[in-house]
């Protein structure tokens, strides 16, 4: 007859020896750095915690297909264990194709990656894409974990693209950029700090306005960009609970370089709360402010301004359909807001299908804050003159995209706006 006695978590225990098996590519020094904390344990609870953390750290590097951990008693120390990590490395080459979606756009993306190049979780990736708004795009990047951490990564990149902006303004843009970025993950969310030098060539289309033609030329932007995202939603495309917060700051004109000189802030927030049964209340808000940083250079390029309106922004208006216009083009602005609320529920008899019904109300506005006008006065005018719309429709959701088919009723708008009465179709990820 045999029995087992559970070991108290505070019982004295340490790690006497550690072995790592199954690797042929990954460097020994990299592995030792990843698992070195297991030797800091002094109790049985610490041993289990540190071993789990070491295994999780190795897993987050995404270079191992399988990780197994074994522990056995030490022959020389009764209060110690020997730990063995048995690893199975992933192949170096990765080929991937996927469909990505943005604001009423869909792109087919392909990528070729080589991982764990020098045995320290280094990566090199070549990526290309094309779609209805991105006519062509290509990117190459190399990256490596900072000090062996899977949660902090440094990348250097170059990218080129050819995009059609005619859904809002009648112009095309060819851009080439090079830069570096650091990406990190913490308990609060994900941070990214990037610097990029961008060369842009804006070409006016035949029906473009004088506003667009004035910016139809080559220009250079030197910018430092920080983004922070915290996302606790249970589903990205059709959340039923959780919160989302995204904050972006861009400082253009770094090192007195380039033609763009401004400080730009954007914030987007969502809250999703189940009410009763399968009924869900979703609320969202967006806000942006752009401030020129040179008194003698206050002009903002058409590519850098804010635009409001559209199925992912303020439903019931065409894309960029809120605010002043110059012929076929939206003028945009340097300050905006958008806010909305919706109730979603499954369709009776079709709860098993990836489709829900919803009713919504939303509002928004965009304006140009004059240099000498107090921010408070601009905000009051922005809110008092806000455009509103309401409606109802169907939401079709998939892990890659969300599609909305809505019947919209614009409630408040101006003669310069482009309200969209009736049917409106939207494709993307983050709707208001």
TrEMBL record:
Q: Which domain of life is it from?
A: Eukaryota
| InterPro entries the record matches | Bac_surfAg_D15, D15-like
- The primary site where this protein sits is mitochondrion
Q: Which Pfam families match?
A: Omp85
Biological-process GO terms, alphabetical: protein insertion into mitochondrial outer membrane
Q: Where is the Bacterial surface antigen (D15) domain?
A: 116-431
Per UniProt, subcellular location reads as:
Mitochondrion outer membrane
Does the record bear Transmembrane in its keywords? yes
A cellular component annotation (GO) from this entry: mitochondrial outer membrane
Q: How does it sit in the membrane?
A: Multi-pass membrane protein
Family assignment from sequence similarity = Belongs to the SAM50/omp85 family.
| Protein name as catalogued | Surface antigen-domain-containing protein
Q: Which organism's genome codes for this protein?
A: Phascolomyces articulosus
């Amino acid at each position: 007859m045999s029995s087992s006695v559970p070991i108290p978590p505070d019982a004295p225990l340490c790690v006497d020896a550690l072995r790592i098996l199954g690797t042929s590519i990954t460097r020994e020094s990299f592995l030792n750095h990843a698992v070195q904390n297991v030797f800091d344990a002094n109790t049985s609870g610490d041993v289990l915690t540190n071993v789990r953390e070491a295994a999780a750290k190795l897993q987050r590097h995404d270079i191992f297909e399988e990780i197994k951990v074994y522990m056995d008693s030490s022959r020389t120390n009764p209060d110690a264990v020997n730990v063995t990590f048995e690893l199975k490395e992933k192949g170096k080459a990765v080929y991937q194709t996927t469909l990505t979606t943005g604001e009423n756009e869909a792109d087919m993306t392909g990528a070729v990656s080589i991982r764990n190049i020098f045995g320290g979780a280094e990566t090199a990736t070549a990526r290309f894409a094309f779609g209805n708004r991105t006519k062509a795009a290509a990117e190459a990047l190399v990256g490596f974990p900072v000090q062996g951490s899977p949660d902090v990564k440094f990348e250097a990149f170059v990218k080129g693209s050819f995009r059609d902006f005619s859904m809002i303004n009648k112009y095309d843009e060819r851009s080439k950029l090079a830069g570096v970025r650091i990406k990190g993950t913490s308990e609060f969310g994900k941070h990214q700090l990037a610097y990029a030098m961008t060369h842009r060539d804006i070409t006016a289309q035949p029906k473009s306005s004088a506003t667009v033609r004035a910016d139809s030329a080559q220009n250079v932007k030197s910018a430092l960009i920080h983004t922070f995202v915290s996302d606790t939603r249970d589903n990205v495309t059709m959340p039923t609970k959780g919160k989302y917060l995204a904050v972006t700051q861009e400082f253009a004109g770094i090192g007195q370089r380039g033609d763009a000189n401004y400080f730009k802030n954007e914030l987007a927030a969502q809250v999703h709360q189940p009410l009763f049964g399968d009924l869900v209340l979703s609320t969202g808000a967006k806000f942006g402010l752009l401030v020129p940083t040179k008194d003698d250079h206050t002009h903002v390029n058409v590519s850098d301004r804010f635009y409001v309106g559209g199925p992912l922004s303020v439903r019931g208006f065409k894309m960029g359909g809120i605010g002043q216009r110059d012929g076929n083009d939206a003028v945009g602005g340097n300050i905006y807001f958008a806010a909305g609320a919706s109730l979603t529920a499954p369709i009776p008899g079709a709860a098993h299908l990836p489709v829900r019904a919803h009713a919504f109300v939303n509002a928004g506005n965009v304006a140009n804050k004059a240099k000498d006008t107090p921010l408070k006065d601009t905000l009051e005018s922005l809110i008092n003159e806000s455009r509103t719309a309401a409606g109802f429709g169907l939401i079709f959701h998939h892990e890659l995209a969300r599609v909305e088919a809505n019947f919209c009723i614009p409630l408040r708008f101006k003669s310069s706006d482009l309200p969209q009465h009736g049917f409106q179709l939207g494709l993307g990820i983050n709707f208001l």
